[in-house]
Design brief:
Elements (H helix, E strand, L loop, with lengths): L1 H19 L1 H4 L4 H14 L3 H5 L7 H11 L4 H4 L1
Length: 78
């Protein structure tokens, strides 16, 4: 049981590392960007559903990418 507690502490450390390396994870290929945009127009903010179409990407990564790229003014930037 002590191992489970250690694991949860480790995951919080990983989150800190992720925020530092976030830029590298937010680099998507043109194909991925196109797919995300098409899927978003079809299903909206269902990040898990979109992530299911892109191997190796998590829903969280896709949501961070989308909000960092399009934010609240998504229609004016596209």
């Amino acid at each position: 049981m002590g191992d489970l507690q250690d694991t949860s502490q480790d995951s919080s450390k990983d989150n800190t590392k992720d925020s530092k390396g976030e830029e590298s994870k937010l680099k998507f290929s043109k194909d991925e960007e196109d797919l995300i945009a098409r899927m978003f127009s079809l299903v909206g903010q269902r990040w898990g559903l979109i992530a299911g179409r892109i191997p190796g990407r998590s829903a969280e990564e896709i949501e961070k990418y989308w909000t960092s790229k399009y934010g609240s003014s998504s229609s004016s930037e596209q």
